[in-house]
């Protein structure tokens, strides 16, 4: 994968989902910010979406490319916030040979 770091031009923030008890004693899940990094965003082509997700909705899917080395290892159940929208991580592909880039397939969270 020959990406240039100059193309990492969008800021994204990763959030985990953590269970906590609110002031009323009710168990809730709340997002906890993990870290922010630079990313390159690429729209998915329909054939790529179909091969990745099958019959799921074919819209609002993006490919996010970030540097492999980050503050923390990214988990599949985390969320990504980008342009004030939340995205669910669907798949993480790590560059195991060169350890330069991580590619994430994400789908805009349905409201």
TrEMBL record:
This is Head-tail adaptor protein. Gene3D superfamilies: Bacteriophage SPP1 head-tail adaptor protein. InterPro entries: Phage_SPP1_head-tail_adaptor, SSP1_head-tail_sf.
